[in-house]
């Protein structure tokens, strides 16, 4: 297929010869093939570019939508028509010289288009495509994948703007966090057409196009206004470049390498309670230098709604593994799961988690931590610990960033106790007797017992807390023994009583 150009592209490249223009194509459409010479006809075909001398044009003519003329000299007034794109060349110019220049323009774009279509045979087709495209636009180009990594960029982009990229080619965490919380950025996440970023979002204006495969975002190709101002024709030619890039499906199919990771799949199977191949699992662990005698911990990270919408979770998985050695991160049901080998990190565990917790706060995440464990025999149970820590922690302290299973273990146990029966049906007989007596006699023996047990059965401390005399406290304890029918000596009865009182407060 021969490339077609817009009238704006031709006008830009012939601007030294053009004296006047009357362009009506506000969309800058790529509709014109190489020009043909006008041979006296009075009807001008749609989307057709003609070459003509003004004196040979008929005084009356009919113009179809999108017809265009490159005219030597000024034509009759009828040619200044709303349906005609007209470029007027000075009378001193030779028609055949202008025709040669126009064909040279088409030759250059045909060469570019041919290079784009042949890029699938290159070792790195994406880099090759933007390298041969940079001279066409005169500005730098880059390609950002769904992990917010710049996987290809041209020379002008590297020299025009290098800020914000880490040593791995990824955009900085601060920039990604800024993106995901920016309303303007969120609006373009699913945009299918060419769009422009204003300069107040990035340090410069950008023309962008999202590339999808099976409705899944794969890449964003970016033209940055770092060297010269954008031309009116840039958007249409950029769209052509993007359409060629979409024709390389084999290079677009693996958008998230973590999804195809053998170890990630094994961890997911273990966490889900499914069968897995132990020998393959051990082999994958050995590649990391991880062994069953090492100590580990699991972090169960809940991303923000902006992370899910903007698909930044894979970016953060990659970022975690790069910035925190001896971690392995993967996505499981919209949760970022991180396993850290405590035994071989080069800093203390306290320093590691202090740094990691800062990362959690900066990303506006919430995280649940499992207990420490050795080996992977009970990996699923520790995975569940981390999940429970986050779930209960978010209910109890929703504004806190980090939650450990150790801090939430007792609440989990209380929740499990009442999973089938409400607390009223599990109440200690001692507590039930005291409550009935209090309701009938307007006494406070159940409250007194609660304070007494809370102070480890210290009568003096309990009396002080209740603002009563110690003798009164001792009298109440005797009455509690009598009414509740207990001597406080049976450990099971005491545990049941304390659980009942705790469930009443839960």
TrEMBL record:
It comes from Parasporobacterium paucivorans DSM 15970. PANTHER family: CARBOHYDRATE DIACID REGULATOR. Residues 445-503 form the PucR C-terminal helix-turn-helix domain. Gene3D superfamilies: PucR C-terminal helix-turn-helix domain. This is PucR C-terminal helix-turn-helix domain-containing protein.
């Amino acid at each position: 297929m021969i490339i077609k150009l817009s009238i704006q592209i031709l006008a830009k490249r012939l601007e030294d010869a053009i004296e006047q223009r009357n362009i009506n194509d506000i969309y800058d459409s790529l509709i014109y093939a190489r020009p043909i010479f006008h041979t006296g006809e009075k009807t001008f075909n749609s989307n057709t570019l003609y070459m003509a001398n003004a004196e040979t044009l008929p005084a009356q003519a009919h113009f179809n939508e999108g017809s265009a003329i490159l005219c030597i000299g000024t034509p009759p007034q009828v040619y200044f028509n709303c349906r005609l794109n007209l470029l007027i060349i000075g009378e001193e110019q030779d028609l055949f010289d202008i025709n040669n220049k126009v064909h040279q323009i088409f030759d250059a774009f045909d060469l570019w288009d041919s290079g784009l279509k042949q890029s699938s045979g290159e070792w790195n087709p994406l880099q090759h495509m933007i390298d041969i495209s940079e001279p066409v636009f005169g500005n730098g180009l880059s390609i950002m994948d769904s992990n917010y990594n710049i996987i290809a960029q041209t020379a002008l982009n590297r020299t025009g703007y290098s800020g914000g990229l880490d040593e791995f080619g990824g955009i900085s965490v601060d920039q990604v966090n800024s993106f995901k919380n920016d309303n303007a950025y969120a609006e373009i996440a699913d945009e299918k057409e060419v769009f422009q970023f204003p300069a107040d979002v990035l340090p410069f204006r950008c023309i962008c196009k999202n590339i999808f495969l099976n409705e899944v975002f794969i890449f964003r190709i970016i033209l940055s206004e770092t060297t010269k101002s954008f031309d009116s024709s840039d958007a249409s030619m950029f769209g052509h470049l993007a359409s060629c890039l979409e024709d390389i499906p084999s290079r677009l199919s693996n958008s998230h390498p973590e999804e195809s990771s053998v170890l990630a799949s094994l961890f997911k199977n273990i966490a889900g309670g499914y069968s897995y191949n132990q020998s393959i699992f051990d082999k994958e662990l050995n590649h990391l230098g991880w062994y069953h005698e090492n100590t580990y911990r699991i972090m169960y990270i809940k991303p923000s709604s902006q992370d899910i919408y903007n698909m930044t979770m894979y970016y953060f998985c990659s970022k975690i593994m790069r910035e925190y050695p001896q971690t392995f991160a993967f996505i499981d049901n919209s949760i970022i799961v991180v396993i850290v080998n405590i035994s071989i990190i080069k800093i203390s565990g306290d320093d590691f988690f202090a740094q990691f917790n800062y990362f959690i706060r900066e990303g506006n995440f919430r995280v649940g931590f499992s207990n420490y464990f050795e080996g992977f025999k009970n990996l699923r149970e520790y995975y569940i610990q981390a999940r429970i820590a986050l779930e209960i922690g978010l209910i109890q302290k929703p504004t806190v960033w980090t939650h450990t299973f150790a801090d939430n273990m007792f609440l989990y146990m209380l929740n499990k106790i009442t999973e089938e029966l409400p607390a009223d049906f599990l109440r200690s007989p001692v507590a039930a007797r005291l409550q009935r007596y209090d309701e009938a006699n307007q006494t406070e023996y159940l409250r007194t017992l609660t304070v007494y047990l809370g102070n480890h059965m210290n009568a003096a401390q309990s009396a002080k807390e209740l603002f009563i005399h110690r003798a009164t406290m001792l009298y109440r304890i005797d009455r509690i023994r009598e009414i509740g029918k207990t001597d406080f000596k049976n450990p099971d009865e005491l545990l049941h009583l304390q659980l009942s009182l705790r469930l009443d407060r839960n």
